[in-house]
């Protein structure tokens, strides 16, 4: 328990990592539908991350966002090349 604030981006990256997932499994209950109670979550010990980690996390997430935009643009282009309109034109 620290009074230091945690960078939410760094926390997000840490919790979605295999280390973070293992940490979350320690407070998960239920076998069919895994659940985490707010009470257990508030007791979860999270490592304090450095400012550098927070900056790096922001860079990583910005890169991921840029890549996702590129993927979506490529999907749009792919559909424009061989989408439904093109297939329907083959029947004429």
Structure write-up:
With 92 residues, the chain is mostly helical. It contains 5 helices and no strands. Helix 1 crosses helix 2 (18-25) and helix 4 (51-82) runs parallel beside helix 5.
State the gist of this model.
This protein has 92 residues and is an all-alpha fold. 67% of the residues lie in helices and 0% in strands.
Which structural class do the helices and strands define? mainly alpha
Main sheet specs: none
Kindly report how far apart the N and C termini lie: 70 Å
Q: What overall geometry do the principal axes of the alpha carbons give?
A: elongated
Helix fraction bin: 55-70%
Gyration radius, to the nearest Å?
A: 21 Å
Number of strands: 0
Q: Which segments are poorly predicted (pLDDT under 50) over 5 or more consecutive residues?
A: none
State which percent range the strand residues make up.
under 5%
Average pLDDT over all residues:
83
Comma- or semicolon-separated keywords:
elongated, mainly alpha, about 90 residues
Strand-helix topology:
Blueprint: H1 8-16, H2 18-25, H3 38-43, H4 51-82, H5 84-90
Helix pairs in contact: 1-2, 1-4, 4-5
């Amino acid at each position: 328990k620290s009074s230091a604030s945690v960078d939410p981006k760094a926390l997000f990256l840490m919790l979605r990592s295999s280390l973070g997932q293992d940490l979350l499994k320690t407070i998960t209950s239920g076998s069919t539908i895994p659940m985490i109670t707010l009470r257990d979550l508030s007791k979860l010990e999270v490592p304090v991350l450095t400012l550098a980690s927070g900056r790096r996390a922001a860079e990583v997430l910005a890169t991921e966002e840029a890549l996702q935009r590129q993927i979506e643009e490529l999907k749009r282009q792919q559909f424009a090349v061989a989408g439904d309109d093109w297939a329907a034109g083959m029947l004429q």
